[in-house]
Design goal:
Elements (H helix, E strand, L loop, with lengths): L10 H7 L18 E2 L2 H15 L3 E8 L5 E8 L20 E6 L5 E7 L10 H4 L10 H12 L4 H11 L11 H15 L2 H15 L4 E6 L5 E7 L1 H10 L2 E8 L8 E7 L5 E9 L4 H14 L7 E4 L3 H10 L4 E4 L1 H12 L2 H4 L1 H13 L3 H5 L24 H13 L6 H28 L9 H9 L2 H14 L2 E7 L3 E6 L12 E7 L3 E4 L3 H5 L4 H9 L38 H20 L3 H21 L21 H9 L1
Parallel strand pairs: 8-11, 11-12
Antiparallel strand pairs: 1-5, 2-3, 3-4, 4-5, 6-7, 7-10, 8-9, 9-10, 13-14, 14-15, 15-16
Helix pairs in contact: 4-6, 7-16, 9-10, 18-20, 21-22
Length: about 650
């Protein structure tokens, strides 16, 4: 049997059963000597229901404990009980004598031994008045959890209140005021701020438990405070092995409560979707900080640096890249350069209608370096310096800006560090879900295009749907050019059929050189820049009767097999590529069953009694079987950092 086992019929249920026998003017929940409760919480709820009927609020009063510290008696009193504070002059305390006193019974329940119903003050008459009492503004635990889940998804408090009203039938039926959810959120925020770093490392442990390849790094100052924190998942690390050739890094997001800039390392996947490789919180954006960030990022990703990295025009970042990753190509984000140019140009950018378009065309369309060197000098962002450098079709950090925008939807302002990490993980998982959806659509698509050129049909068999759309767009562009042979089988000049209609500065012809009968080199530089064939080459291949895309021009990262990952890339197993744990499935099943029970229990009083009886029995059984989960300890290694949150241990973590 259950210790302190619930009676077959609780006090609240018993009172509701006896309602038909009550006469006019009688209270449903009025306490009487000998009324028994299973717990203090049940007693509080019962007396609070009674106080609502009468028109007052309640609170816990005096209690007695024995020499072993065991509580033996408890008073529940009117909220106005006690002496008024003389220093304040005004107040609600008026020494009200109303009280319900209980003693603990032998079976650990509680029994009413005294009930005094008299009051010496005005009693509330309307629902609005009654709800001003603290005890009638209380939110039950289930509703608190609902409020917490809403806020974790960054839903505003006003919307939370309206949603709860809708769930309860109307705003008028809510048993608490609009301020109550705000108080709940304040308490949750305080709990999250307390021991924030300890909770963050505990969260990392849980992530490591679910994903053995999850890893994080810490950098501490002399006082043991966190200076930099970087973390990544097993799936992100495996994706980096396939798509880490080009990485975008940006640190413009600073909404956590410590005002620490948040940086994202992102790339692009086979479906041209954004992939998040790692997240980092930094105390300061200094050369030393970026040196640590880049070195730890490469270390977490298996020691292989990216081919190209795009950043904003941060001088400290540029110096750090030169020191830490000297062999990597560094390019500035074109979007940041354009924004800076707009600030420097002032009103000319908007006052002269033709200037902006001409300026953009000059930046995006010119191909020859010498055209730019005459006026601009050596740059790190203009197309002439980009066209033969692989960037995976990326010239801007706007993918990071987009990820930062999504993160703002997930993370409320002034979040604690552990909340920030938790919500970031939700964003990462949603991005993975979007990839899985795109992968499913790609697999369901037909294997090859119907009709069209043979090379087009071959391309549709190897490329993903998104990349194939780019292939077709390039093919359409290429059809505007007429190939002219300059050297048999080796050199061709593709001239635009309507060159006279193109701008004077725009090129109307492109030279394509062929080596070893399969290596095509076009002046436009699209393939070395993006890993995709340009329209000039595709159209020339069709003109020459080529039926298949040469293997040397098929970049695996854009193919349907582009994310073929090794079974074990890092020590620790398959990480979060494993099937999801059945816990979430079980939780959903239980939720469906509980909602069904609620619906069935609402049909009649007898149905309600049956549901409450079996729910009470289930709670009793769960109490008896409930055990503390034994702690799980992880060995320190290069990839997993299961450590206690102490200054010395954190230092060991950083040095491991």
């Amino acid at each position: 049997s259950c210790v302190g086992s619930p009676r077959e019929i609780g006090a609240v249920e018993n009172a509701l059963r006896n309602t038909p026998a009550l006469g006019l003017g009688k209270h449903i929940f009025e306490p009487v000597i000998g009324t028994v409760f299973d717990s203090l919480a049940e007693a509080y709820d019962f007396y609070n229901l009674y106080s609502w009927e009468v028109g007052f609020g309640i609170r816990y009063g005096n209690s007695n404990t024995n020499r072993h510290g065991y509580r033996t008696s408890q008073d529940l009193v009117c909220h106005t009980q006690g002496s008024p504070q003389k220093s304040r002059g005004e107040g609600s305390r008026c020494a009200c004598p109303a009280i319900m006193r209980m003693h603990r019974s032998d079976d650990h329940g509680w029994s009413v031994v005294l009930h005094r119903a008299d009051h010496n003050h005005h009693l509330s008459g309307t629902c609005g008045e009654k709800m001003q009492c603290n005890s009638h503004r209380r939110i039950d635990q289930a509703t608190k959890d609902t409020v917490k889940h809403f806020r974790e998804n960054n839903i505003s408090l006003s919307k939370v209140h309206y949603i709860l009203g809708s769930m309860n039938g109307s705003m008028d039926t809510l048993p608490f005021t609009k301020k109550a959810p705000h108080i709940v959120c304040q308490k949750v925020n305080r709990e999250q701020r307390d021991d924030d770093m300890k909770k963050t490392t505990d969260l990392f442990r849980k992530m490591h438990d679910a994903d053995p390849d999850f890893a994080f790094r810490l950098q501490l100052d002399q006082e043991g405070r966190v200076v930099n924190l970087i973390w990544t998942s097993g799936r992100s690390r495996r994706q980096y092995s396939c798509f880490g050739d080009v990485v975008i890094f940006d640190t413009t997001y600073t909404t956590n409560r410590y005002k620490m800039p948040f940086g994202l390392f992102v790339g692009v996947k086979i479906h041209y979707q954004t992939v998040i490789f790692a997240g980092i919180l930094m105390r300061e954006e200094t050369i030393e900080g970026f040196n640590w960030a880049f070195a730890e990022f490469v270390s977490l990703m298996g020691g292989k640096p990216p081919v190209t990295m795009l950043t904003d025009q941060c001088r400290a970042m540029e110096v750090a890249i030169g020191m830490t990753l000297p062999g990597m190509r560094h390019r500035w984000c074109k979007w940041h350069v354009f924004r800076k140019a707009k600030e420097e140009l002032g009103g000319i950018d908007s006052k002269k209608n033709g200037f902006k378009q001409a300026f953009n065309n000059a930046i995006n369309e010119m191909l020859r370096v010498d055209e730019f060197e005459k006026a601009w000098g050596e740059l790190k962002w203009a197309k002439p310096f980009f066209k033969d450098k692989y960037c995976g079709r990326m010239t801007s950090t706007q993918r990071v800006e987009s990820a930062n925008h999504m993160l703002k939807v997930y993370v409320p302002k002034h979040s604690s560090m552990n909340k920030f990490v938790s919500q970031y993980d939700k964003l990462r998982k949603d991005r993975n879900e979007a990839e899985d959806s795109e992968e499913h659509m790609n697999n369901q698509a037909t294997g090859c295009a119907r009709g069209g050129w043979p090379i087009e049909r071959h391309a549709s068999k190897i490329y993903t749907m998104v990349v194939m759309r780019h292939f077709k767009d390039e093919l359409v562009k290429g059809q505007s050019f007429i190939p002219k042979e300059l050297e048999a089988g080796k050199l061709y000049d593709l001239q635009h059929a309507y060159a006279e209609h193109k701008p004077s500065w725009s090129r109307s012809s492109f030279i394509v050189r062929i080596e070893d009968d399969e290596h095509y080199h076009c002046e436009c530089g699209l393939y070395p820049h993006a890993g995709m064939l340009c329209g000039h080459v595709i159209w020339l291949m069709i003109h020459l009767g080529v039926r298949r895309v040469p293997d040397c021009h098929i970049m695996k990262r854009w193919t349907k097999n582009g994310r073929d990952l090794p079974d074990v890339l890092f020590d620790g197993g398959s990480g979060d590529l494993r099937p999801a744990l059945p816990r979430s499935l079980m939780q959903n099943l239980m939720r469906v069953i509980v909602l069904e029970l609620l619906k069935m229990g609402n049909k009649s009083d007898e149905a309600s009694r049956i549901v409450m009886k079996h729910v009470a029995a289930a709670k009793c059984e769960l109490r008896n079987t409930e055990m503390e989960t034994p702690p799980v300890y992880y060995s320190r290694s290069r990839w997993s950092t299961g450590v206690e949150c102490t200054k010395e241990d954190l230092r060991q973590c950083c040095c491991s």
